[in-house]
Write a structure and sequence with these properties.
- Strands 2, 4, 5, 6, 9, 10 and 11 form a seven-stranded mixed beta sheet that branches. Strands 1-3-8-7 form a four-stranded antiparallel beta sheet, with no helix packed on it.
- It has no helices and eleven strands.
- The radius of gyration is 14 Å and the shape is globular.
- With 127 residues, the protein is mainly β.
Length: 127
């Protein structure tokens, strides 16, 4: 499974960005996979941001982004989006998308369970 993350950039506090994670590969099946967004700031551990289980659309969010970020999936393709609004300086990080098949809902936020990762995209929020 290959994941391509894109859409990062520099934005002012209070602004918005939309990240995309395009999945591909012969083993990728939308009905089986969960896609999660994680972020990692310098000197910090990778943190769960949001995740979506493709087959039923169940979503989960990290506490720090609830009400500001929205994760969604492409209705026909293999892309997951992360719409980020009301951005804060503390949202600055490299954002990664991960994918894993056959996940139960309670496992969605657990970074250690994801075995497929994209290359990351930098998000910088200026205050």
């Amino acid at each position: 499974v290959q994941l391509q993350a894109s859409g990062g950039g520099l934005v002012q506090a209070g602004g918005s960005l939309r990240l995309s994670c395009a999945a591909s590969g012969p083993n990728f099946s939308r009905s089986r996979y969960t896609v999660g967004w994680f972020r990692q700031a310098p000197g910090k551990e990778r943190e769960f941001v949001a995740g979506i289980r493709w087959r039923d659309g169940i979503t989960r969010y990290g506490d720090s982004v609830k009400g500001r970020f929205t994760i969604s999936k492409d209705s026909v393709g293999n892309t997951v989006y992360l719409q980020m609004s009301s951005l804060k300086a503390e949202d600055t990080a490299v954002y990664y998308c991960g994918a894993q098949p056959d996940m139960i809902v309670s496992s969605i936020p657990q970074v250690r369970l994801y075995n497929n990762w994209g290359q990351g995209t930098q998000v910088t929020v200026s205050s």
